[in-house]
Amino acid sequence: MAIAISEIRAGDRLARLWRRSSSFVVGSALVALLVLTALLCGFVSPYGPTQVLPNAILQTPSAAHWFGTDGNGMDVFTRVLYGARYAIAIALPSAFVMVAVGVPLGLIAGYYGGVVDEVLTRMLDVLRAFPSIILALAVVSATGQSLINVVVVIGLIDAPIFARVVRSEVISIRRSDFVASAVVTGNPTWRILFVHLLPNTIKGAAALLPLRMAWALRVSATLAFVGVGIQAPEPEWGALIRQGAEYIISGQHWVAMFPGIALVIAVFGFNLMGDGLQELTDPRLDVKK
Questions:
Q1: The domain spanning residue 194 has which CATH number?
Q2: Residue 6 to residue 183: CA distance in whole angstroms
Q3: Residue 11 lies in a domain
Q4: Of the residues 39, 61, 111, 165, which has the fewest C-beta atoms closer than 10 A?
Q5: How many domains does one find in the chain?
Q6: What is the spatial distance between Cα 121 and Cα 166, in angstroms, rounded to a whole number?
Q7: Cα(first)–Cα(last) distance of the chain, in Å?
Q8: Average pLDDT of 136-159?
Q9: pLDDT tens digit string along 97-131?
């Protein structure tokens, strides 16, 4: 009986969440599917992600190979599934770098203002002045094509966005009574920044995070496609699309098509989740409801 009541309550909560933001529900479901795929891909496919099948080169999709095979005789379905691990391994650490670098800079610039704000803001403006893809291409080419380098570069390039969002929020509340009270009672600066200001300024950055994770996936796939990012035989979706592009003209479209579809679904899921978070954190939404 208790289980049935809890299921009803969970269903009611989901229904209310759907009414408030169906985008968030659908996007979260797609992101959850991506995470499950990354966790369970080793149990789903009988093949390894780099296992070569000499007698199965460029086979069309079939019962034995759902997405066909590529020019090396590797199972495309298996490689697309394992590509989800690279997607998570890029999106989540990149988001951590963005937040870990951008949020403290935004807090410091907004709280101190004056020369500190001016210097930090101008430095961030210089970083954002370069086209993101071109800058990522240049830095990854110089530092190496490892997963760690790709993650760090993407995170650092996008950190200024979070810094600006947090900075604007801090500027709007730094003269508030609760901040003045914290200063008067002798709280150290780090406590004012991270205990008093951060919880009141992080909402906008949190809503922005899934959107920037989608951006990180797109940039990573772009880098791999042009030959700078993670490369074959690693089953990263951008690398798989690059590998399959040469076969499209000869009719073996499935090699590039299926990893491309997986990338679109993942990016779409993160974008929907981000749009939904912005809807849920918009105070005007509560007024309308």
A1: 1.10.3720.10
A2: 45
A3: no
A4: 39
A5: 1
A6: 12
A7: 32
A8: 85
A9: 999 999 999 999 999 988 988 998 888 888 877 77
